[in-house]
Amino acid sequence: MKYLSEYRNLEATKSYLQLIEKTITKPWNIMEICGGQTHGLVKNGILDLLPDKVTMIHGPGCPVCVTPLNLIDKAIELLENNVIVCSFGDMIRVPGSKKSLLEAKSQGGDLRILYSPLEAVKVAKENPNKEVVFFAVGFETTAPANALSVLHAQKEGLKNYSILVSHVLVPPAMKAILDDEFCNIDGFLGAGHVCTIMGYKEYHPLARKYKIPIIITGFEPLDLVQGIYMAVKQLEKGSSIVENQYSRVVKEEGNAAAIKVIKQVFEIGNREWRGIGVIPDSGYILTKTYKEFDAELKFGISNIVAPENPACIAGDILKGIKKPHECSQFGNNCSPSNPLGAPMVSSEGACAAYYHFSSNLIS
Amino acid sequence: MNETDFGFESINLGHGSGGLMTRDLLDKIIFKAFNNPYINQKHDGAIININSQMAISTDSFVISPIFFKGGNIGELAVNGTVNDVAMCGAIPKYLSLAFIVEEGLNIKEFIEIVQSIKKTAENSGVQIITGDTKVVERGKGDKIFINTTGFGEVHPKANIATKNIKVGDKIIVSGCIAQHGMAIMSQREGLQFESDIVSDTTNINFLVNDLLNNFGEKIHLLRDPTRGGLASVLAEIAGDTQQGISIEENKLPLEKQVAAACEILGLDPLYVANEGVFLAIVDSEIADAVLEMMKKDKKGMNAVCIGQITNDHPTKVVMKSTIGGKRIVTPLIGEQLPRIC
């Protein structure tokens, strides 16, 4: 497959691994931001191929994992009140405080699993007598399509469509991680697809302030080892700039059309991150003009709170303080079929990656 | 037989009443299609002679959509059970056939399904010898559900059992994986994408029979990786035998279009359903000959050895990735879900 097989090439990957080996003289901790990158590293067995001096720390970039528990309970509340809830597939198995969306569906809720929020607008149009809510979670990557769904619904004059928003942003999360007193991260692999939308201008101040190299990186094996090599090279010579490994997709200025749509519908506001807590100015909220599309306001469900399971250390996992297999619950009381927290369920969650693919479990 | 001869445009509750309307449906559509000495008795059941050990397998088919690229629910209901019987090392002979029809099913569709069953059964060398038809109210089914039970004579040379598997055995896959699941996925509501991917639904009993004729008990295990895909079957075998399994990612037979569709939807082909592919775990000394024989058959032309049974990592399936790393392969937990981004 063009643009894939080249990036899964054994020889090319090996040559970058050798370059890392040759370059590295000191131990470095590098965090890959995105859950897709974590899965790429574990699924392809890259962690075992890296020199011992490189430690990869898994970042918070799993949209499902950082969606607060109360949002899931809110979606379930809607399902149980005759609202059609549309969601990305990843979200439906994540446990809320009492049950998951999948369980609520089996009990009669009308849950639709969709690939695109624009499909949800179609559902609203086809069901004029029902309320339809799209569960709009994710990072900057999914924000343009979610914003576009609001614009489409407005254009169609639909009064029965709204979105349950839990949009979070990568740069504030990186800042929160770097400000954490336990932070031991020397370099970042930036999230390639987030930067496809937003570009990477906003990363320069971070790299400067915290003197940390940030390499915008893709998801295929060759992307990952090249990204790690670029980070190690900078660290060894004491450099701390933003570099773009994923240049076949990412431009510095991002995708102007997508950014325009986001800015039209959303503005920056405080957001709660599951396992981490509220980070100021770390997410998107609907602007005043589009408040009528805010499902929380429309259905009066803003006051629903949900306690986390105290046994789950998702916060430490998301901040990279602990690795999944270092959790006492991992594989015992917590598995993908019986998860305590979101990182064990999501296809981008670090715990699920370790559970499904990790060579730590081979013997 | 066509819908105008039948007098109804769609199936209604009366057709499941057990009365004259049921009889009419049976006479005009079902008995007519499966004309054979067993079903022609029109009795409560069928009496058959089997002179060897018998293999029995049952399966229910609830697929949506009922017509898909490469087949329909009827074809699937025959092939699925025929293949399960074949995986026991048996020669499938007879099938029972039970329908649960939701009222309102278009009679034309019902006839098309019955005709498919007839044709597929003939192609597999099995006879439909007994059956049942029930009709449920609208909303209490999903157009049509089918259950088939297959009966087969165990091949005299066969000795298929997980306990026969030993270290060094080779693992052969008979054809390209993930085609059925991706064909269905491409037609599901909300996920439509254009592709020419067709289901691989087919019967593989004759190829299995040829293999058993030639290699007998050196074939240690046969499995068809339907729901849950190749990964789930391999993980099950590793768990049941307490042996390790090692496979290589770049050996997996995968059509380009299927691989691309899996990439787009974020699905792992190892977990996607197959309906015309089987897994043979064979003594290493016959592996090359088995492959050669399979490749000569249309239904095994893409056969490939993907790995072996090993002493390392007991109970675990480990896959060597294309770039030389290793990962474990765990069974499917629930349904594979589309990703967010």
What does this structure look like?
The complex is a heterodimer of chains A (363) and B (341). Helix content of chain A is 39%, strand content 18%. Chain A is of the alpha/beta class and 363 residues long. Chain A has a domain of 149 residues: HypD, alpha/beta domain 2 (Rossmann fold, 3-Layer(aba) Sandwich), CATH 3.40.50. In chain A, the strands form two sheets. Chain A has a six-stranded mixed beta sheet, sandwiched between helices. Chain A has a five-stranded parallel beta sheet with strand order 2-1-7-8-9. Chain A is globular and about 65 Å long. The model of chain A has no long low-confidence stretch (mean pLDDT 93). With 341 residues, chain B is of the alpha+beta class. Chain B has two domains: 145 residues, PurM-like, N-terminal domain (60s Ribosomal Protein L30, Chain: A), CATH 3.30.1330.10; 168 residues, Alpha-Beta Complex (Phosphoribosyl-aminoimidazole Synthetase, Chain A, domain 2), CATH 3.90.650.10. In chain B, 30% of the residues lie in helices and 23% in strands. Chain B is built from nine helices and 13 strands. A seven-stranded mixed beta sheet of chain B has the order 8-10-7-11-9-12-13, with helices on both faces. In chain B, a hairpin with a 5-residue loop joins strand 12 and strand 13. The radius of gyration of chain B is 21 Å and the shape is globular. The N and C termini of chain B lie far apart (50 Å). The mean pLDDT of chain B is 93. At the A-B interface, helix 1, helix 2, helix 3 and helix 16 of A face helix 8 and strand 13 of B.
CATH topology of the largest domain in chain B, anyone? Answer: Phosphoribosyl-aminoimidazole Synthetase, Chain A, domain 2
Q: How many DSSP helices of chain B? A: 9
| CA-based shape of chain B | globular
Q: How confident is the prediction overall: mean pLDDT of chain B?
A: 93
The overall average pLDDT of chain A, rounded, is 93
Structural class computed from helices and strand pairing of chain A = alpha/beta
Order of strands side by side in the largest beta sheet of chain A?
4-3-5-6-11-10
N-end to C-end Cα span of chain B: 50 Å
- The arrangement of helices and strands of chain A along the chain is HEHHEHHEHEHEHEHEHHEHEHEEHHH
Number of strand elements of chain A:
11
Amount of helix of chain A: 25-40%
- Helix count, DSSP H or I runs of 4 or more residues of chain A: 16
The CATH homology group name of the domain at 66-169 and 254-298 in chain A: HypD, alpha/beta domain 2
CATH class of the domain at 66-169 and 254-298 in chain A: Alpha Beta
**Strand runs of chain B, count:** 13
Shape of chain A: globular
Order of helices and strands of chain B: HHEEEHEHEEEHHEHEHEHEEE
SS-based class of chain B? alpha+beta
Strand order of the largest sheet of chain B: 8-10-7-11-9-12-13
Strand content of chain B: 15-25%
